Amino acid sequence: MYAERVKNYYTGTVRKEWNRLIRSPYFKLEFDTTMHFLEKYLPKKGRILDAGGGPGRYTVELAKRGYRMTLLDLTPANLEFARRQIRLSGVQNRVEEIVEGSITDLSRFEDETFDAVICTGGPLSHILESRKRNRAVRELIRVAKRRAPVFVSVMSRLSVQIVELTLFPFEIELPFFKTARDTGDYPGTYGFTACHFFLPEEFQRVFQNKGVKILEMAGLEGLSSRQTKAVNALARHKKRRRVWMETHLLTCTHPAVVGMSEHMLIVCRKLSAPRISLSG
Length: 280
Ligand SMILES: C[S@@+](CC[C@H](N)C(=O)[O-])C[C@H]1O[C@@H](n2cnc3c(N)ncnc32)[C@H](O)[C@@H]1O
What we know:
Elements: H1 2-11, H2 14-20, H3 25-41, E1 47-51, H4 57-64, E2 68-73, H5 76-88, E3 95-100, E4 116-119, H6 130-142, E5 149-155, H7 157-167, H8 175-183, E6 185-186, E7 195-196, H9 200-206, E8 212-219, H10 228-234, H11 238-251, H12 255-260, E9 263-270
The protein binds S-adenosylmethionine (SAM).
């Protein structure tokens, strides 16, 4: 039921989603910070699964850098659009597959297929049942080779309170506000689609006992979270922007910053001899 709601939402927002990460210097922070961590941990070459990759912003970027990409997403309209962008960017020979599917079931891929797996911008947040989120994380890890990095980013529960205060204060008195605040679950009845907003400790817990070592967590917007105007204004000053970006990268892994950032990233490495727990 929720998956259909999510798919309908993203079917209507394809171009917006394609532009989301480059819309303004503020939105580009998410992309640039994710790329910073990808550059830090990705192997020099290999096959990458872009799971929940939407219209393919990361698939195109990573294909340009020589990786062999597989793009998977729930929303066919995103994949259609991605196909065009991949062709326009001239990287179709590095995109091995574009497939419709859910991260909760990656059975079309064998165990240990990919040299890295990325699942960015919140596909995991769009799964409302905790059992299914656990299954999705197990699947993302299963298809990664031993020692391969796995990158997942989600939307934060603490940050969404600030979003409500600053952008939608009239919603604070509606019943769903308290439910989202107390459980992280938002059914997708107003504006945005169905979403689970994570607390940082909860996000970390989903990866525990699943055969990975957690390397880092980062707040992708970090101290700049929801400071849209200030970040956009700073972009006009080259030197200030450079020093602020340096400050951002120095602080974005601080636990206090991770939790209040709009998007949180976790970077894990699959163990060389994974011990997968049957529970949790
Ligand atoms: C905010 S977009 C992120 C797209 C891209 N990964 C990025 O970082 O820009 C969320 C995407 O997750 C996809 N999605 C939602 N639930 C999913 C699921 N269960 N399996 C695969 N993709 C899913 C949506 O179709 C949408 O394209």
